[in-house]
Specification:
alpha+beta, 6-stranded antiparallel β-barrel, 5-stranded mixed β-sheet, 24 helices, 34% helix, Heterokaryon incompatibility domain-containing protein, HetReg/Transcr_Mod
């Protein structure tokens, strides 16, 4: 293959890429392809004129191609008369490389070339339709990029956004037909038909809760298995599907389904069938005894990833209104795997803010630590802020400085940030405008850099307000190393018992609000399963009744673990009533409950008290083997940095000469710019510190 690549070089300046044609002579036993180089700048005069006339319109490739076709519907494999380039047109393949030791041979320009059987299976499936044997070609990264040439690989990865965003269509190959995948795709099509009707979705939910199932037996179990396929775990898939947008077609065995249809079904599950689907799966498992040996049936990772990450990314790209934030991309990267840790950054350049991605030059000669430091440097230089500190901590494996986010750290979780929306509004379920960006808190409001942060070697010199110190740490029964530290202080930063109770209630779900009548909801929550069932059934609160069998025990377990944790001189239990008052609004309680789940458990986090009498949350370790010394401890301090929306917990090192970043924190009463007034009153000062 080296000789082929040398004979078919690519030039980024001409937006060149290699494409393959699947030869008509290919057979079931032997795939034969031809590989050649083409330029995306060589458009036909007709298409050039068409685009020029519409150049002022900010529209997605999908919208442009739909109009170019002029047929009222999108065709994934266009007629040759609608090809955009002088040499034809192309489609990009999204697939899983698979087991690198399980390989087979194909012919590329007559040369025997080794690829994985998974890719070979995808090529065989695409050969059957005959769409790729003429002027409509195929881009496949493993074949079209010389993976052994780091210089070429770096250059081509830098413009991979172009390859997918300009492809006529993107084919997502999920794998062969197996485990009743046909039933799964039929179920998906059926669920998607309900997407535009709240009434139909509600009717479906009520029927399923009453065990009135209309699906084909085994379909829900098959859907679960389909979402467990390795395809969804691949990091590169994120930008491939997002950039393909509504031009993406999924293929599984002989079945084909649009990416939009697939995601609409996931939306129906997310908003209406989250609990009922458990019952449907259990019924299918009872009918299939062998399935009882398969574990992890309640794992919702992929369902969340598809709807909350992949589809939201797709909508953002289609709307062309914004880009996913740094924080959000890091969370998404945690949901996926890649064989090369450097691709945690490079594999997301196509869906990153273009202003930032232009400053990150792929270089496969650099090691992962160097790549992460360069990415952090690019972020600070581009945005002139320190919001990236929210993703920094001591717990990464790549030996980066503590202020540099380690993209391989597995502790980040979707919906785990206090400023996350737990779920998007169903009525705005296909509106990608701004949905990926967030900066809800404003701890740094009114604070400004005297001079920009400066990077020197492995250190970051910047300004911060040192605000408070850890006093006590509560338990998190779902964390690896609870290591509770009982509070010693008696002070309250908020006032008397009633005022402290109000602030505690808000802090429990990180709501930030200081004066709202419904903000004390969590202090009235039932504290045992028995009390909860009695009160919820009496009130007729279906959402909570459904949840009793699944997640509510997490609340009662958390409370029992922290009942005797001291807050402003009292046991935590003293602040709770265990009784929902008359006239309570279920929406207020559900919102507060979900906010608490997101804040306390999804992180996970631990309740913290400070020497000044404040209440908040700090992150805790997520790995059993993690050194306990890396956990939050009493001498750690809270700092507010200009350009960072949340307080950061830092640890003095080297005799106070520097600080390490421990992690982000929530601190009630300092999340809305209150620190600015503290600095103005000269009670605190903005000072230079060195992060290392």
């Amino acid at each position: 293959m080296d000789e082929i690549y040398r004979c078919k070089p690519v030039q980024n300046a001409q937006e060149e890429l290699r494409l393959i044609t699947i030869d008509a002579s290919s057979t079931v036993d032997q795939i034969s392809c031809s590989l050649d180089t083409f330029s995306l700048q060589e458009v036909t005069p007709a298409y050039h004129k068409f685009v020029e006339e519409r150049s002022s319109l900010a529209r997605s490739t999908s919208a442009v191609l739909a109009e170019w076709l002029g047929t009222g519907h999108f065709d994934y494999f266009p007629d040759s008369t609608r090809h955009r380039f002088l040499w034809g047109d192309y489609c990009a393949l999204s697939y899983v490389w698979g087991d690198p030791t399980d390989t087979t041979i194909i012919l590329v320009n007559g040369v025997k070339t080794q690829i994985t059987k998974n890719l070979a299976e995808a090529l065989h499936k695409l050969r059957e339709g005959g769409q790729f044997s003429g002027r409509f070609r195929l881009w496949v990264d493993a074949v079209c990029i010389n993976q052994l040439d780091n210089e070429e690989r770096s250059a081509q990865v830098a413009i991979m956004r172009l390859f997918y965003s300009q492809a006529w269509s993107v084919i997502g190959f999920l794998g062969p037909q197996e485990d009743n995948s046909d039933k799964a795709l039929d179920l998906i099509s059926s669920l998607a038909e309900n997407f535009d009707s709240n009434e139909k979705c509600e009717e479906l939910r009520e029927n399923m809760m009453q065990h009135k199932f209309s699906h084909t037996p085994g379909a829900w179990l098959a859907l679960k298995r389909l979402t467990f396929r390795p395809y969804w775990e691949r990091l590169w898939v994120m930008q491939e599907l997002a950039l393909g947008g509504t031009r993406t077609l999924l293929i599984c065995g002989s079945k084909r389904i649009s990416w939009q249809t697939f995601c609409r079904a996931m939306g129906v599950i997310q908003f209406y069938l989250w609990v009922p689907r458990h019952r449907a799966i259990e019924q299918d498992r009872l009918a299939e005894p062998d399935s009882r040996n398969e574990g992890d049936w309640h794992n919702t990772h992929t369902l969340d990833h598809i709807w909350k990450d992949l589809w939201q990314l797709t909508m953002v790209q289609e709307s062309r209104s914004t880009s996913a934030s740094w924080n959000r991309l890091m969370e998404m990267a945690n949901s996926c795997d890649c064989s090369d840790p450097r691709d945690k950054v490079y594999g997301l350049l196509g869906i990153m803010d273009p202003v930032l991605s232009k400053s990150i030059i792929p270089d496969y000669r650099s090691n992962p630590t160097e790549v992460f430091i360069k990415a952090a440097d690019a972020y600070i230089s581009t945005y002139k802020d320190l919001e990236l500190l929210r993703d920094a901590n001591l717990w990464g494996s790549q030996e980066t400085p503590s202020w540099v986010p380690d993209w391989t750290w597995r502790g980040r979780s979707r919906d785990s940030r206090p400023d996350d929306f737990f779920q998007p509004d169903f009525n705005q379920r296909e509106n990608g405008d701004g949905s990926m960006e967030r900066r809800s808190y404003r701890a740094d409001l009114g604070l400004a850099f005297a001079l920009p942060p400066r990077i020197g070697g492995r250190s970051l010199l910047c300004q911060a307000v040192i605000l408070d110190t850890v006093d006590g740490l509560g338990d998190n029964p779902e964390a690896a190393n609870p290591n509770r530290i009982q509070s010693q202080g008696l002070a309250s930063a908020y006032g008397d018992f009633d005022a402290h109770s109000q602030q505690l209630a808000i802090a429990l779900y990180a709501g930030r609000r200081r004066r709202e009548g419904d903000s004390t909801a969590l202090l009235n929550f039932p504290l045992t399963q028995e009390s909860a069932e009695k009160q919820f059934r009496k009130l007729g609160w279906k959402r909570f009744i459904y949840d009793l069998d699944f997640y509510y025990s997490r609340w009662t377990n958390w409370f029992s673990s922290n009942a005797f944790f001291r807050v402003a001189g009292r046991d935590l239990r003293a602040y709770f009533s265990d009784r929902i008052p008359e006239g309570a609004d279920v929406s207020d309680y559900w919102s507060a409950y979900q906010g608490w789940v997101r804040t306390a458990l999804a992180g996970p986090r631990r309740l913290v008290t400070t020497t000044a009498g404040r209440i908040g949350w700090v992150e805790c370790a997520k790995a059993v083997s993690l050194d306990v010394e890396l956990e939050v401890r009493r001498e750690d301090v809270f700092a507010v940095f200009p350009g960072c929306s949340m307080p950061i917990l830092i640890r003095p090192v080297n005799g106070g000469d520097g600080f390490q970043v421990v992690g982000e924190a929530y601190l009630q009463g300092v999340m809305e710019g209150e620190v600015r007034e503290l600095v103005r009153s000269e009670r605190y000062k903005l000072q230079w510190i060195r992060l290392c």
